[in-house]
Amino acid sequence: DAGVIQSPRHEVTEMGQEVTLRCKPISGHDYLFWYRQTMMRGLELLIYFNNNVPIDDSGMPEDRFSAKMPNASFSTLKIQPSEPRDSAVYFCASSSSGPTDTQYFGPGTRLTVL
Amino acid sequence: AQSVTQLDSHVSVSEGTPVLLRCNYSSSYSPSLFWYVQHPNKGLQLLLKYTSAATLVKGINGFEAEFKKSETSFHLTKPSAHMSDAAEYFCVVSGFSGGYNKLIFGAGTRLAVHP
Q1: Contact residues on chain A for B34, CB-CB shorter than 8 A
Q2: Of the residues A24, A36, A54, A83, which has the maximum number of CB atoms within 10 A of its CB?
Q3: Binary contact (B46, A104; C-beta < 8 A)
Q4: B31-53 pLDDT, tens per residue?
Q5: In whole angstroms, how far apart are CA A90 and each of A60, B13, B24, B41?
Q6: Residue A1 clears pLDDT 80, i.e. is over it
Q7: Whether the Cβ atoms of residue B95 and residue B102 lie closer than 8 Å to each other
Q8: B61 closest CA partner among B42, B48, B44
Q9: Tens digit of pLDDT for each residue in B68-90?
């Protein structure tokens, strides 16, 4: 299996622009997670989906962030408008067994907002 | 509420010497516990997982961890460090927060290995 796939790997944008991060989970995994990693706050769960339905979005920072999962093999995390404080590495992870079982992480997208 | 504390933010060892990364957890029930490793500019990779079977868990690359309920600890060890072990290590506990089940990550321990 190819593992969790994320694109782009790096994104540099200017403040105010829209940013879309993409994720393809491991085939057959019913759970998909979006995390954000920063030096100051560590690894934070933003949102997770089960069978394409958002379950817990309590970690989404504010209305500028939105996530969708239109089908079992694709999810997006969108930031509009982006701000410099959104600069971080964003990880997607998937699991076949639930939110407290083994999660398999993608390589991450490093976002820099100027 | 569940929580996890990694007692050292940085650990430095010489190649060929033992590695000890310390983790304490807090949980009101028997949790699942994990160690993940993150190499520079990479995603997190599962090293090992404890789920109430054997208390000594063996993982990949020669790592192992021992679950000690009386001490609420889950320390990660390796007998002999290799240069390729230099990375950040995360101790993780299963938990319930904000009304949902989720994994709770420690702050991480950065392991440096010197020749």
Answers
A1: 102
A2: A36
A3: yes
A4: 899 999 999 989 999 999 998 77
A5: 12, 30, 27, 12
A6: no
A7: yes
A8: B48
A9: 999 999 999 999 999 999 999 99
